[in-house]
Amino acid sequence: MDIEKLSVASVMRRDAPSVSPSTSLKELIEFMRKTNHYMLPVIDEDRTLLGIVNYRGILSIFRPFSGSVSEIVERMPFVEKIDDEDLNLELSPEMGTLILVADIVNTNYVSITGDSTVREARRLMRLHNIETLPVVAGKKLVGVLSLLDILVFILKEHEILNSE
Question: Which of 4, 27, 43, 79 is most buried, judged by most C-beta within 10 A?
Answer without folding.
Answer: 43
